[in-house]
């Protein structure tokens, strides 16, 4: 991949096209003589009307356009060119004998007017300004091309990542399920040593499945294939179900998750993608258990604000909190903090980034604050629908 050029002096502008428009033939002669030695391709017109005829065929990279001319003025000429060519219209240097600050402001106030050339001409200044403008155009074009190439490469990476994760997920799921069958004794009794090995296989495959699912989610979001299936839902019921299921996992660390519902929770309806929002809640609860010491209390609470048309929920843990110097990593892809899970659990560094993208897709906001003493609270605010 070609790297963008960062130095204007390194950009060769020979062959760039410049259209000079002036009713004074002497001005055209002077400007042409000054620019021809710099290797530009030149064309000229003696009026705005003639410039309109020449422009589409010549397709200049820069216009040098006299402001005051018989017939249509330079500013009117450029406005018509903009109407015909739109955003593709070449930028313009206005040529003017008016040098007061008000005149210059009026001239450069014209959309596309990037500079002006005062009469009488300073040849060295004209050459320098034209060269700088054309070099800058080429630099921007090269940078845009580089960004497009980078975006294409990133898209290819996302597609490859998604394909690899998808192909790996099915065999991993099979390994995980088979390990579960063996643990449950569905194919006969197993010894304690065998149980330990099977447990290791089960936990490792479960961790890798989580990673595959996270990678697939990120690939879907970045490729624009992330779609919400919105439906009316009672958020309190969703939270309560998530807490119930998460408590099964939490008991392994002798941790308890408590759900505090809002008053009159049954009256609150919200338009969300239930599956995606469960993913957010599950991730926040899992993280709270993961980073809290064994035997901790994790609290999930729902809040409502009917007057503002919003509802929210929070998850509080008893972990070490967020290091202040690492806040910029929070909610970013692969943004792992220095704090470690208290039970040796694995982390991809993608969970919170996915949560942020899901919440923002719902028009909501997710944030995190350290609690006094110890612990952290993650807070999600969502627009509500009665």
Q: How much strand content do the residues show?
A: 15-25%
**How would you sum up the major sheet?**
5 strands, parallel
Q: What's the gyration radius in Å? A: 33 Å
* Low-pLDDT segments, ≥5 res: 1-5
Corresponding CATH superfamily of the largest domain: Histidine kinase-like ATPase, C-terminal domain
Mean pLDDT: 83
SSE sequence, one letter per element: EHEHEHEHEHHEHEEHEEHEE
Under the CATH scheme, the architecture of the largest domain is 2-Layer Sandwich
Total of DSSP H or I helical runs spanning 4+ residues: 9
Number of domains: 3
Describe it for me?
With 386 residues, the protein is of the alpha/beta class. The chain folds into three domains: 13-121, Response regulator (Rossmann fold, 3-Layer(aba) Sandwich); 147-222; 231-383, 2-Layer Sandwich (Heat Shock Protein 90), CATH 3.30.565. The protein is 47% helix and 17% strand. It is built from nine helices and twelve strands. Helix 5 (123-183) runs antiparallel to helix 6 and helix 7 (235-250) packs parallel to helix 8. The protein is elongated, with a radius of gyration of 33 Å. The two termini are 53 Å apart.
Overview features:
386 residues, alpha/beta, Rossmann fold, Heat Shock Protein 90, 3 domains, five-stranded parallel sheet, five-stranded mixed sheet, 47% helix, disordered N terminus
């Amino acid at each position: 991949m070609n790297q963008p050029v960062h130095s204007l002096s390194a950009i060769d502008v020979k062959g760039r096209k410049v259209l000079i428009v002036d009713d004074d033939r002497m001005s055209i002669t002077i400007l042409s003589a000054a620019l021809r030695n710099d290797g530009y391709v030149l064309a000229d017109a003696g009026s705005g009307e003639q410039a309109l005829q020449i422009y589409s065929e010549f397709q200049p990279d820069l216009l040098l356009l006299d402001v005051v001319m018989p017939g249509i003025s330079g500013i009117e000429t450029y406005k018509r060119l903009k109407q015909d060519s739109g955003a593709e219209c070449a930028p313009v240097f206005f040529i003017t004998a008016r040098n007061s600050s008000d005149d210059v402001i009026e001239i450069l106030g014209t959309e596309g007017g990037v500079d002006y050339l005062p009469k009488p001409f300073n040849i060295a200044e004209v050459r320098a300004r034209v060269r700088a403008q054309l070099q800058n155009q080429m630099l921007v074009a090269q940078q845009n091309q580089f960004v497009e190439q980078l975006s294409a490469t990133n898209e290819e990476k996302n597609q490859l990542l998604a394909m690899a994760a998808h192909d790996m997920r099915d065999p991993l799921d099979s390994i995980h399920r088979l390990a579960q069958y063996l643990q449950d004794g569905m194919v006969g009794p197993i010894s304690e040593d065998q149980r330990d090995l099977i447990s290791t296989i089960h936990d490792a495959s479960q961790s890798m499945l989580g990673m595959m699912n996270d990678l697939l989610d990120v690939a879907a979001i970045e490729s624009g294939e992330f779609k919400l299936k919105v439906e009316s839902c009672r958020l309190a019921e969703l939270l309560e179900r998530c807490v119930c299921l998460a408590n099964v996992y939490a008991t392994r660390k002798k941790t308890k998750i408590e759900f505090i519902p809002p008053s009159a929770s049954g009256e609150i309806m919200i338009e969300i993608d239930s599956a995606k929002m469960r993913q957010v809640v599950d991730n926040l609860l899992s993280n709270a258990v993961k980073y809290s010491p064994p035997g901790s209390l994790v609290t999930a609470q729902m809040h409502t604000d009917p007057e503002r048309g919003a509802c929210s929920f929070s998850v509080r843990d008893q972990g070490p909190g967020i290091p202040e110097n690492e806040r910029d990593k929070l909610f970013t892809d692969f943004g792992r903090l220095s704090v470690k899970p208290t039970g040796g659990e694995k982390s991809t560094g993608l969970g919170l980034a996915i949560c942020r993208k899901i919440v923002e897709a719902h028009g909501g906001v997710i944030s995190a604050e350290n609690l006094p003493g110890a612990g952290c609270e993650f807070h999600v605010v969502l627009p509500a629908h009665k």
